[in-house]
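Q: Structure for this?
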Amino acid sequence: MATIKDVSKETGLSIGTVSRVFNNRGYISKETREKVEAAVKKLNYQPNAIARSLSKSSSNIIGVILPHISHPFFSDLLSYIENATREKGYSLMVFVTKGDEEAELAMINRCRENKVCGLILCSGRFATKKIESNEFPVVAIERNPEGASFAIECNNRQGGRLAAQELIDKGCKNLVSLAGIKGRKMPADDRSTGFEEVCRENSVNFTCLTYPPELYDRLDYTAFIDKVLTERPNTDGIFASSDIIASQVIQVAASKGLKVPEDLKVIGFDDTLIATYTTPQLTTIHQPIKEMAELAVSTLIGLKDEKSATGCTIMNVSLVKRGTT
Amino acid sequence: MATIKDVSKETGLSIGTVSRVFNNRGYISKETREKVEAAVKKLNYQPNAIARSLSKSSSNIIGVILPHISHPFFSDLLSYIENATREKGYSLMVFVTKGDEEAELAMINRCRENKVCGLILCSGRFATKKIESNEFPVVAIERNPEGASFAIECNNRQGGRLAAQELIDKGCKNLVSLAGIKGRKMPADDRSTGFEEVCRENSVNFTCLTYPPELYDRLDYTAFIDKVLTERPNTDGIFASSDIIASQVIQVAASKGLKVPEDLKVIGFDDTLIATYTTPQLTTIHQPIKEMAELAVSTLIGLKDEKSATGCTIMNVSLVKRGTT
DNA sequence: CTGAAAGCGCTTACAG
DNA sequence: CTGAAAGCGCTTACAG
C-alpha cells in the first residue's frame, strides 16, 4: 500500500506539499498538482483515514446506536441514515442494544475509542443527558432528551390524535391503545396522550395499555394481544404503536374469528413496508422516517463545532388510510 | 481526554510499560499493574483505538457491504452480523449499495481507507475476484465467488427442490418460479435450477421467470407479478425467491380475486418475520440466517493471517409449512 | 520486569 | 508557492 511518503518520493515534493494538495489547503501551483495527481494514479495511492484521524484528532465516522435492526421502523431509519451519511462523505459505525443501560454505555465507549465525530442515538431506554459534555455531539431520534442534546421526534401526540379520530369517525365505541413500554419513558408515550385527549373530547370509552419491555425486545406481542382481546371482548378499535404490533393484532384477531375491519378496526404507526403486506392492508400513521434520518445526519455534521447546541425538532405525521379501518 | 501519557505521568512509569499492561504483553509486576489500574480509574482513561490501529496498521473494524437494509433478509442478516461482531470485540462499519459496480468499488475503497480488518460482502452483482489480493480478507454471503475468497451460501438448489416438491404434492399443475434477477448471476439462481429439476422429474408444467434488477432495487414487484398472473391465468403455484416477493404475490392475487391457497399456492424463501404477517401466513424455505452471519464473522476473524484462504460452505435449508400451500 | 526510542501515516503552523 | 519539523496516541523490538 502506497503512502504519502511514496508519493512524495515519486514527485520529488515534500510530504507537506503533497498533503496540501490532497487537502486543498493554501496555494499550490498547477504543475505541482498535476505531478501529484500523476503519482497518485501511478502508485494507486489511497489516503489512510486512520492516520488522518489521528493527526486531526477527529474521524469521519458517525456512530449510531439503535435497539433493533430487524424492526421495520429501525431498518428503514438505519437505511436512510446510512445513505445520508455516505453521501456526505462520512462512514457509519453501527451498534445495537436493546436498551440495557450498561450495554449502551459500553457502546458509547466504543464510539469514544473510535473517535466518532458524532453519535445518533435512536430510541432506547436511558437518558441522553448522561453522555453530554463529551468529545462529540449527539443527536437523539425518538428518545427522551432530558438533557441538552439535540432531539428529533415526530409529532407523536398528533399521531395519537389522528388515530383516535379515525377510529371514532368509523364508528368505534370501545377503544384500546397499545402504546408505550411499561416502565420506560419515551416520546412515543405521547401517542397515548393524544389518543386519550380525542377519546375524552368525544366521550368514547377507551383504555391505554402499556406492555412489558420484553415484548419489544423480542418483537413478539401475540400472547399479550390475545390476552387483551380475550379480557376485553367488546373492543372494536385498536391503536397500536407500531406496524409490527398492528400486524400481530390482525393475526390474533383472525385466529379468534374476528373480522378486520368489520368486527375490529386497527391502526398502526410508522407506515413501513409491512403495512402493505397484511390483509387487509394497514391503516397507519405515517412517520417521515427519511426526513428524520436526514435531519439527524445533517444536524450532527453541522453541530461539529458548537457541541453544546440544543433543540428539539418535531416532524409532522399524517394518517394513511388503507383497509383496516 | 486522558492519554497514555497522562497515565504514564500519574504512575511514574514509562509509556511503554503502561502500554504493556494494557496489552498484557510480557511480564508485569503486580504492583505496576495495580498502579496503572488505579490511574486509569482516576483519570477515566480510555485507549484511543485510532492511534492503536495506526501503530498496529490494522484496526478492529469489520466492514460489511449489502444491497439493502430494509429488505427483511438483509436486516436480519445485518442484525446477526452486528451481534457476532460486537461480541468478538470488533466494531461494524456498514455500507449499502444496490449493486452498482462503481459504487461498490468506492465502498471497498472506504473500507481500505478505514483499514478494516476484514470485509463481509453480501449478495450484490459483481465478482468478488476483483477485490482479492488485498490488505484484508473478504468473505462473501450469497454471492458469486468467482475468485479465491471464502463464500457462504445456503443450499439454494435444495431450497428450489423442496419448494417444487411441496407445490406438486399439494396438487399444482402449472408452476411458475420467480427467482433470479435478469442479467445477474448469483447463487440464488440455483433456486430455479432445483425447482426445474423436480418439475421435470414429476413431469409438471413450469416456467422460470427472472425479473429486471430495478424491481429488486426498489423492492416493488407488484406490477411484474400482476403481468405474470394476467398472462398465465392457469398458474396454480408460484415459487418466489424471497418472502417479500411472496407477500406481494399474495396481495396481487387478492386484488385479482384469486384465493390463496385454493386457487393459487405460493412459497417464499428466507423465512423472515414478514412470513408470519401475511394472511394466510407464508409457507417458505427457511434459511439459517443467524448461522450464516455467525460463520461469516468467525471465518473472517480466523482468516486474519492466512489471507488467501479459500472455500465455500453451503448451509442447509428446510421447508416451513404455513398457510399458503 | 522496565525504559528509551523509533515508527505507524498523516496534518499543520512556521519559516522562507 | 514549498520545505522542515513537531505532533496526533499508541506499539514494539531492543537494551538493560
